[in-house]
Amino acid sequence: MKIRITMWVMGVAGVLAAPVAWAQFVPTKENPIAYAADTFEADDGNHTATFTGSVEFLQDTSRLRADKVTVIYGQNPTTGRWDALSTAEAVGNVYYVVDDQVMTGNRAIYTKSTDTLVLTGNVVLKQGQNVMEGSRLVYDVGAKKSSMDGVPTAGSKSRVRGVFYPNQASNQNSATKKPQ
Question: For residue range 76-91, what is the model confidence (pLDDT) as tens digits?
Fold first, then answer.
């Protein structure tokens, strides 16, 4: 059974199951999730929920934006219902913010069983003024740890590239201290 709903308003009762499960994608599970998309489609037979067109999920300090987000559900071992988040895939202009980190790329896949987000395609990771670029970012959501694979360049190995700015406050404090 497929349902297609045009959505601009957040909090539609008929689609609450998808955003509630999506909460596991972001660090805080208790707080409400606001969401918006141009369209929503649920496919009970395939256990999927698909949000399309300027998709946005917001919760606390976390934000996900993409052109399309598909959530795939697995069977909940406790209840037997198909309401447990298995994977979520965001495609096209992916923008994910958590705390003070901004991650962008072409495609992101969150896997519940490993609690990891894998971002691919022109990946950029920013934290303040610091910037890192690569081809693939693996982010462990619960541990808040990440690793980046490099971008292949002509005639050389893959390389991770970036710019890091020294901590201005620490440098100023060091410069004002008198030698002993």
Answer: 878 888 778 889 999 9
